Amino acid sequence: MSKDKNKVKIGLLGAGTVGSGVIKALQNHAFVEIKKIGVKDLNKKREFVSALNGNKPGAGHSPPLLTSNLNEIVSDPEIEIVVEVLGGLIPTKELVTLAIKNKKHIVTANKDLIATYGPELFDLAKENNVQIQFEASVCGGIPIINTLKQTLSANSFKKIIGILNGTTNYILTEMLNKNLSFDVCLKEAQKLGYAEPDPINDISGKDSAYKIAILASIAFHERIKIDEVYTEGIQKITLEDILLAEELGYRLKLIGVAGKESDGKIDIRVHPAFIKKTNTLSSVLGANNGVLVEGDLVGELTLIGKGAGSMPTASSVAGDINLLVAQISSSQKPNPQFVCQHTSFAKIKSISETTNCYFLRIKTEDKAGVVGQLGTIFGNHDVSINTLTQRCTNLDNTASITMLTHLVKEEKIQEAITEIKNANVVKQVENVIRVLE
Q1: Domain 144-307 in CATH: superfamily?
Q2: N vs C: which end of the chain shows fewer Cβ within 10 Å?
Q3: Catalytic hit among 211, 253, 260, 349
């Protein structure tokens, strides 16, 4: 990439999977020059180095293109945009903070950073008259963030529902398609590179919580404290749950949900849910992501695509770079659409206050009166049963009972479940899953 004083100079923090994709996407960019790339290992062979040098044997940058001193990038007076693709919070937060203080615009793919420290960083960016772009932090190549900020900015949003994690969606899809257990499909996902060696952030729902918090903050113009987002993962999901969902006309997904209630509180949560097969999100399969938004003007709109991977994520990062290059070329004042304008923190609705339908799977003694006893307990807690089915009699003289409830407050269903667990005819409450109507 030849040097040109008219090009906007960029520094990259990180050159892993996403970073390498970004470098490839910017290789022949007309208005951008990559000046520095921060890496951990200077001796590691990297294919992109020769490409950036014009594929000439022995060609090199002077000064060198790669550096292991990341502070060198965030402090370089010639670099105007710092692209952060390191991930994590340490030392990322410190580096991004220093870059902003040095009047550099930021492009990041780091949902952990934005969800955890976004308010602090956005305030600092405003003080220093720079912007933070973070399209790639949610759903990789799906252009959901700038769609909310720009194209749909005239809408008041009622809700956002998202399949925001490709690892969990892949596991649930494989369980359904191949009739396999959670553990088997998780190992398969790890073998194929869809899941990390330690997959806890994905399967626990934490990754999805970061993403729905970011989307809710944009849609509802209030800041979200990440530790207030109710989060439940898919570790308890069994093949039986998935097959029963299909039988009842639903599909089981890990979803992030956010909506603004009439009392001004935001209902925001991540958990497994039965969603109707008529819902467009039910068709989001494999490692893909999908986001459904409902606006007062546009109605329901669903975006589906690759939520991770080198080039899909690089697409979003490069798009953010293009936005900033255009901004830098035209004005020194950040475009208001790209700057965080809200400063108040949302009041979050407790999960106990939410209202849902529920699917329950209960193992009981196989004898007369069990169903009546369950019905009495539910009735005492104002839980109305929609359907109840005794599925089978097991060899250990127990019965498997499943039921769907009508809409009921979470607090009430949990009170009923506590009592049911203590009933002498109940062996185990095997699962309780919310149903998205």
Answers
A1: Dihydrodipicolinate Reductase; domain 2 (3.30.360.10)
A2: C
A3: 211
pLDDT in tens for each of the 437 residues of the chain? 445 668 999 999 999 999 999 999 998 889 999 999 999 888 888 877 655 655 443 345 545 799 999 999 999 999 999 999 999 999 999 999 999 999 999 999 999 999 999 999 999 999 999 999 999 999 999 999 999 999 999 999 999 999 999 999 999 999 999 999 999 999 999 999 899 999 999 999 999 999 999 999 999 999 999 999 999 999 999 999 999 999 999 999 999 999 999 999 999 999 999 999 999 999 999 999 999 999 999 999 999 999 999 999 999 999 999 999 988 887 767 777 667 777 899 999 999 999 999 999 999 999 889 999 999 999 999 999 999 998 777 778 899 999 999 999 999 999 999 999 999 999 999 999 999 98
User: How is the chain split into domains, by residue range?
Assistant: 8-133+311-338, 144-307, 351-436
**Domain at 8-133+311-338, CATH from 3.40.50.720, 3.40.50.1220, 3.30.360.10, 1.10.260.40:** 3.40.50.720
Torsion of CA 132, 136, 142, 145, to 10 degrees: -20
Alpha-carbon distance of 116 to 415, in angstroms, equals 33
Burial label, 344 (beta-carbon count in 10 A; 0-12, 13-18, 19+):
exposed
What architecture is domain 351-436?
2-Layer Sandwich (3.30)
Does residue 211 carry a catalytic annotation?
Answer: yes
User: In whole angstroms, what is the distance from residue 213 CA to residue 285 CA?
Assistant: 23
pTM tops 0.70: yes
